[in-house]
Amino acid sequence: MSTDKVIKLYILDKKNLNLLPSSKTKLIIVNPAVTKPDLTRQQGAMTPDEALFFIPFCSMIFLAIFILKLLDIWKVAIAKITTLNCFHQLPCRNCRFFTNNHYLYCTVHPSIVLTEQALDCSDYCP
Question: Residue 6: its pLDDT value, please?
Fold first, then answer.
């Protein structure tokens, strides 16, 4: 069977479906089966009492984790502040040999510049 014949048969079938008289058609009314929900306790489902216990429990765990994270941030901030306060005591910035070059800060002692060892620098000259 050629493709043209198949297409013509398909078109004829479509036209014939629309031409059926209404007296030959039957309407069937279908009533779906209505099932009542099972009110027994399902496996793995939580009752409201268990859910009410679960909400504050999770909230307390979240609050504890949040407080621990804040304490870690606080410790890091305090450590940074104390190290920044040490830089004010260093005499390097007032020294004659100090350069503001990032590659070489001090021409005499480049290994100890801007550290705590620089407090006792023997070559310090303001």
Answer: 64
Radius of gyration of the chain (CA): 43
| Amino acid at the residue 3 | T
Render the burial of 87-112: b for 16+ CB within 10 Å, e for the rest.
eeebebeebebbeeeeeebbeebeee
Residues 10, 15, 20, CA angle at the centre, nearest 5°? Answer: 125
Structural contact between residues 92 and 119, judged by C-beta atoms closer than 8 angstroms: no
Q: Reduce the secondary structure of 53-67 to three states and give it as a string.
A: HHHHHHHHHHHHHHH
Yes or no: say if 118 and 90 are a contact pair by the CB < 8 Å rule: yes
Residue at token pair 């023997």: 122
Closest by alpha carbon to 106, among 94, 92, 120, 117?
Answer: 92
The pTM of this model reads 0.38
